[in-house]
């Protein structure tokens, strides 16, 4: 090789290494980035307190703990940190239960450990025989795992860990992701690619993603996953698929995550060749019993079923004149001996009942209170219609004291801009959780219903419809990750503030820079309200385009069901707009406690964000700003667009503080969001103007297109349908 060739070769080699080392920020690592701690002082402190790690025991969960600590600390501290299984003189960080670790046992932490239950943990700076330790202690290995991730969060957000005195446990028992994933890998209302479950290659091929999914979930306390769509396919209950389910369950088990499936109610007919799926038929019962027993031979800790029955065309007990309780109890009975549960969804609205859809779940379920078996939870969406950008809390919360009610949130942004709009959902989740049902007087919040404390239920749960797909960054929009993160954190502890959760996420996902964190937090905190304003301000709802649910369609009418149209919900006329749900209208308001009714029944005291949800209001009625309703709507729609533009400015100003890849990605998404916000604003205002017959205030931006043009837009092949 000539000198020039040698030089060229060396140069190419150099370039190759440079590329290999500079990891592109493609978002795959989520909030689990273990890069060198930048703050020198903190780094010193961490090296001192964590340099030698001891995890005694070799169970699968403790192995996960070891591996995670080794990987994380090596990355964060910048040099190889070995985790040892034996106590040495140099031991600094110790993790274990009194049963697995002699050192933890010697610390006599029993009284404190009593407080943290089966999943909680202690994180302590502890002196023992003249030596200082950082201790992760728990009653169970799962608790140790959660404590480990808590400590890693402290490190990733660069907190002081010198005087740790953390005692922490989850408020809700089941913290579950619902995947609306089909067996062909399409995802209903999924906007981040295809399903991460590669059914074709399972059980033989275990994708690294399954492990990273489990790590991410364990890091935020999620302890269950429903693998399949609520619009269920009974095929998943066949041996061919149960083998695949088993493979996933085996991957997730060490991370404390149980697997659940959706049960198609007609499976005894489809798979068992029975003539009926009547829940009171002995053969049907026997079929389910055998099926459940079979599932447990594959997955001994199988969690149970989520069921969507007699809803949107799905089969259910009502096909046989049986009640939802009959259906749920039949499944519960066969699951009970195995420790499984039934999560029976309350998202029902009848084809034949021409009543306000808002009222139907309550009408059907409230009379069943007290008739469900102990291992049934009724899973209720946050609001009575369907995951709209804003809904008042569902009237079932507080109305079924004898039944554990599980919360169902939607993390995937079906109605909030899907995979392209930035909408941080923690404030929305919290708004519902903090709402007061007044079921047992003031302070009976939805959160207390859901965590079981209000009515002393032994089981409790929160489910979130996942926004995860096989996109390299998991969630399409980089900020979609924050919603997955926030759901887990709030399911664990709904008292955390949205701001605090945002801060954690920003620091772990981008950086802890004091010039970045508050700016991004501000963007996130205002983002959901921005969406509400440019889509459905002041209590408007269900204005989206047919089927795709992405863009505006306030003109949608004449569909197979009135309550699948927009005109059914906004009820705009020349006089005014809004759905009268008071006594003079559908009286859905009567389903709430008297204290809630008292506040919402009067347009003067009804919070403006719910005004048109409960009232039909005249275009000229005065609003709190002093403007007429029409003008106020124009201002809100325009304000929504302005908020997106403010987010764009903020994001632009952060160039250089965020890696190029993700900065560019978010910048492009914000441009889409700005365009879509205008689309929503202009289409809705032009359409409503045909009723209000009033001008858009002079000082506001004028619509760019005509109503006819907007009405002709029909997105093709939208994702997630
Ligand atoms: C609606 C979705 C639909 C779901 C349904 C449900 O549009 O795809 O199947 O909810 O929750 O939001 O069952």
UniProtKB/TrEMBL annotation:
<keyword id="KW-0624">Polysaccharide degradation</keyword>
<feature type="active site" description="Proton acceptor">
    <location>
        <position position="414"/>
    </location>
</feature>
<keyword id="KW-0119">Carbohydrate metabolism</keyword>
<dbReference type="Pfam" id="PF07477">
    <property type="entry name" value="Glyco_hydro_67C"/>
</dbReference>
<dbReference type="Pfam" id="PF07488">
    <property type="entry name" value="Glyco_hydro_67M"/>
</dbReference>
<dbReference type="GO" id="GO:2000886">
    <property type="term" value="P:glucuronoxylan catabolic process"/>
</dbReference>
<keyword id="KW-0858">Xylan degradation</keyword>
<dbReference type="InterPro" id="IPR037054">
    <property type="entry name" value="A-glucoronidase_C_sf"/>
</dbReference>
<feature type="domain" description="Glycosyl hydrolase family 67 C-terminal">
    <location>
        <begin position="475"/>
        <end position="699"/>
    </location>
</feature>
<feature type="signal peptide">
    <location>
        <begin position="1"/>
        <end position="24"/>
    </location>
</feature>
<dbReference type="InterPro" id="IPR011100">
    <property type="entry name" value="Glyco_hydro_67_cat"/>
</dbReference>
<keyword id="KW-0378">Hydrolase</keyword>
<keyword id="KW-0732">Signal</keyword>
<protein>
    <recommendedName>
        <fullName>Xylan alpha-1,2-glucuronidase</fullName>
        <ecNumber>3.2.1.131</ecNumber>
    </recommendedName>
</protein>
<dbReference type="GO" id="GO:0046559">
    <property type="term" value="F:alpha-glucuronidase activity"/>
</dbReference>
<dbReference type="GO" id="GO:0005576">
    <property type="term" value="C:extracellular region"/>
</dbReference>
<dbReference type="GO" id="GO:0033939">
    <property type="term" value="F:xylan alpha-1,2-glucuronosidase activity"/>
</dbReference>
<dbReference type="Pfam" id="PF03648">
    <property type="entry name" value="Glyco_hydro_67N"/>
</dbReference>
<dbReference type="InterPro" id="IPR029018">
    <property type="entry name" value="Hex-like_dom2"/>
</dbReference>
<dbReference type="InterPro" id="IPR017853">
    <property type="entry name" value="GH"/>
</dbReference>
<feature type="active site" description="Proton donor">
    <location>
        <position position="312"/>
    </location>
</feature>
<feature type="domain" description="Alpha glucuronidase N-terminal">
    <location>
        <begin position="30"/>
        <end position="151"/>
    </location>
</feature>
<dbReference type="InterPro" id="IPR011099">
    <property type="entry name" value="Glyco_hydro_67_C"/>
</dbReference>
<comment type="similarity">
    <text>Belongs to the glycosyl hydrolase 67 family.</text>
</comment>
<feature type="active site" description="Proton acceptor">
    <location>
        <position position="386"/>
    </location>
</feature>
<dbReference type="InterPro" id="IPR005154">
    <property type="entry name" value="Glyco_hydro_67_aGlcAse_N"/>
</dbReference>
<keyword id="KW-0326">Glycosidase</keyword>
<comment type="subunit">
    <text>Homodimer.</text>
</comment>
<dbReference type="InterPro" id="IPR011395">
    <property type="entry name" value="Glyco_hydro_67_aGlcAse"/>
</dbReference>
<feature type="domain" description="Glycosyl hydrolase family 67 catalytic">
    <location>
        <begin position="155"/>
        <end position="474"/>
    </location>
</feature>
């Amino acid at each position: 090789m000539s000198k020039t060739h040698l030089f060229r070769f060396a140069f190419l080699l150099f370039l190759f290494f440079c590329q290999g080392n500079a990891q592109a920020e493609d978002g795959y690592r989520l909030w689990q980035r273990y890069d060198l701690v930048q703050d020198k002082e903190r780094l010193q402190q961490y090296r001192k307190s964590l340099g030698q790690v001891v995890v005694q025991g070799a169970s699968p969960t403790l192995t996960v703990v070891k591996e995670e600590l080794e990987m994380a600390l090596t990355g964060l501290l910048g040099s190889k940190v070995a985790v040892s299984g034996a106590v040495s003189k140099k031991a600094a960080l110790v993790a274990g239960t009194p049963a697995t670790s002699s050192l933890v046992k010697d610390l006599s932490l029993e009284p404190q450990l009593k407080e943290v239950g089966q999943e909680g943990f202690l994180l302590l700076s502890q002196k023992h025989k003249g030596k200082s330790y950082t201790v992760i202690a728990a009653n169970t290995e799962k608790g140790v795992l959660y404590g480990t991730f808590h400590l890693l969060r402290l490190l990733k957000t660069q907190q002081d860990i010198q005087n740790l005195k953390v005692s922490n446990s989850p408020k809700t028992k089941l913290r579950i992701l619902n995947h609306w994933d089909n067996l062909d890998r399409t995802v209903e209302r999924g906007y981040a690619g295809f399903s991460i479950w590669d059914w074709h290659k399972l059980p033989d091929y275990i994708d690294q993603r399954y492990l990273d999914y489990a790590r991410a979930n364990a890091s935020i306390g999620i302890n269950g996953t429903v693998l399949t769509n609520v619009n269920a396919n009974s095929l998943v209950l066949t041996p061919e698929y149960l083998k695949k389910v088993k493979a996933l369950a085996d991957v997730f088990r060490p991370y404390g995550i149980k697997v659940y499936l959706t049960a198609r109610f007609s499976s005894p007919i489809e798979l068992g060749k029975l003539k009926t799926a009547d829940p009171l038929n002995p053969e049907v019962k026997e079929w389910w019993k055998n099926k459940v027993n079979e599932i447990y031979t594959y997955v001994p800790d199988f969690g149970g079923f989520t069921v969507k029955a007699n809803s949107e065309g799905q089969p259910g007990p009502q096909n046989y004149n049986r009640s939802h309780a009959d259906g749920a109890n039949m499944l519960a009975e066969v699951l009970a001996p195995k420790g499984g549960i039934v999560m029976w969804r309350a998202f029902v609205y009848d084809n034949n009942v021409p009543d306000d859809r808002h009222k139907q779940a309550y009408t059907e379920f409230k009379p069943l209170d007290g008739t469900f078996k102990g291992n049934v939870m009724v899973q209720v969406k946050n609001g009575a219609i369907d995951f709209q950008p804003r809904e008042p809390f569902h009237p079932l919360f507080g109305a079924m004291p004898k039944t554990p009610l599980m919360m169902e949130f939607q993390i995937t942004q079906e109605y909030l801009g899907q995979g392209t709009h930035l909408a941080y959902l923690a404030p929305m989740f919290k708004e519902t959780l903090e709402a007061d049902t007044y079921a047992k007087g003031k302070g009976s919040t939805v959160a207390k219903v859901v965590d079981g404390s209000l009515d002393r239920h032994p089981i409790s749960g929160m489910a979130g419809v996942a926004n995860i797909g096989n996109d390299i960054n998991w969630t399409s929009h980089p900020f979609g990750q924050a919603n997955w993160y926030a759901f887990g954190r709030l399911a664990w502890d709904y008292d955390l503030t949205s701001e605090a959760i945002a801060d954690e996420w920003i620091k772990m996902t981008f950086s802890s820079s004091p010039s970045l964190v508050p700016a991004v937090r501000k963007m996130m905190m205002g983002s959901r309200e921005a969406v509400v304003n440019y889509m459905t301000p002041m209590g408007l709802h269900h204005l989206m385009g047919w089927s795709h649910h992405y863009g505006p369609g306030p003109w949608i009418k004449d569909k197979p069901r009135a309550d699948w149209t927009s005109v059914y919900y906004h009820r705009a006329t020349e006089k005014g707009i809004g759905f009268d749900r008071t006594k003079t209208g559908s009286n859905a308001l009567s389903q709430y406690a008297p204290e809630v009714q008292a506040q919402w029944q009067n347009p003067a005291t009804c919070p403006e964000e719910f005004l048109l949800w409960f009232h039909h209001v005249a275009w000229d009625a005065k609003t709190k700003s002093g403007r007429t309703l029409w003008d106020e709507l124009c201002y809100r729609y325009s304000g929504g667009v302005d908020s997106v533009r403010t987010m764009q400015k903020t994001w632009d100003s952060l160039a250089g503080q965020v890696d190029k890849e993700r900065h560019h990605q978010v910048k492009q998404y914000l441009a889409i969001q700005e365009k879509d916000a205008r689309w929503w604003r202009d289409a809705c205002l032009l359409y409503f103007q045909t009723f209000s017959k009033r001008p858009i205030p002079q000082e506001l931006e004028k619509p760019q297109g005509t109503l006819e043009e907007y009405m002709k837009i029909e997105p093709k092949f939208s994702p997630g349908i």
